[in-house]
Amino acid sequence: MIWFAVLLFALLPLMALVIHLGMVTLSRRQMQTAVDAAAMEGLRLRDRSLVAPTFTESDRRAHVTELVTAIYDDNLSSDADDAMQFGAGPVILFDDDATDVTLPGTSFRASRSIRRENTGVYDPVLQSNESNERHGDMVAGQFQPAASHSEDATYSREDFLLSGDSGYDSVVGDDSFLVRLRRTDPTVDPAPAIDTTAGVSSSGPTVPFLFGRGPYGGPDLLDRRERGTIVRATAIAQAVPAMTVGPYLLAQPPGQPDPVPGLAPIQLELASWNLLVLNVPTMVSVSGSNVSGGVTGEFVDPQVATVGDELISGPAQSVVGERFVAIYAELPSGARLVAGFGTVDVDLTLTGGTITKLPSRIGAANSSATWRWPQSLANLTPDDLAAFLSLRETLQEGLMAPALRRSLH
């Protein structure tokens, strides 16, 4: 009898809690996986219209929706088959049955029925929120890393400002992109209106309690148990200076309508780069591998470059079109290390041509905020390293890349 009491009042409730928390954790992790990728994708495409004028804000947000749909799709096709049960956590809906045990004064039912056809997974369809409402599924704004990261019931955050908010820097603009998934829609009451606004926000069903449905506890506790557990996942990506850039690829991969943007086979000196006027072609001369005139630089072998690399000089070559370009800092020892990257429109022959400095932008491809420590930095003297870090901070109109800054709500 004693062991029966232990089983009834200790082990069974513990089992119920473990199973429920397992379902909640699974749902949260699957949701977080999607929003992390979606926030990066939304920010990555922010400046796509600079190279594809027909690309709109609607297109950017549609791409984010399509990405999340693809993450939870079994076979990357538009059919309704969901045999593999990929989704943002399990969905289990109870049947309304005459045998349900109801408790007066509450919405709680102590006995519920489950049918196989009422089980599955949550397949979210993000709303585009083109009006950029604060509570939307995807929101463009400005991240404030030093502010509190809490979120209130209206989805206001001190660390994520929208245009018009106090403290919003209009010069910086919308440097960040937030994406959220939520499961706040219980079966007993509708979800909050701001969670299910057509075209703005969406929500899936809460995670129900399958066990531990005994009629104990006050009315509030019983109602919360019938409601199920609310699960949310939020991610914020912010534009940061690009740390690694790949070479220009003329070959078009499948599904890629344009050549992949990348590095020009030249690097430009930091001080002369900062003196260039935006969108104004600057005449330069080419002698051997050296570039001189309105800006100083040299031809280099095209390769993957990261901040701190010492690029190898290469032969002069003709270059035409928009490219990323490495910007180097010359240190007291004479070493030339990559301090960052910019974007240029070049028209160069073996004797000279023009280089046009373009405004700072987020690279839509072939640029990354990920960095590896190059050996060239490890070999620097303390004075050279201090000079390098100081010079890096002076780079103007540098190339940016998306970085995940917050992956919790």
Automatic annotation (TrEMBL):
Record domain Putative Flp pilus-assembly TadG-like N-terminal: where: 2-39
What superkingdom does the record give?
Bacteria
What the entry lists under InterPro entries is as follows: Tad_N (IPR028087)
Q: What is this protein called?
A: Putative Flp pilus-assembly TadG-like N-terminal domain-containing protein
Q: Which organism is it from?
A: Thalassoglobus neptunius
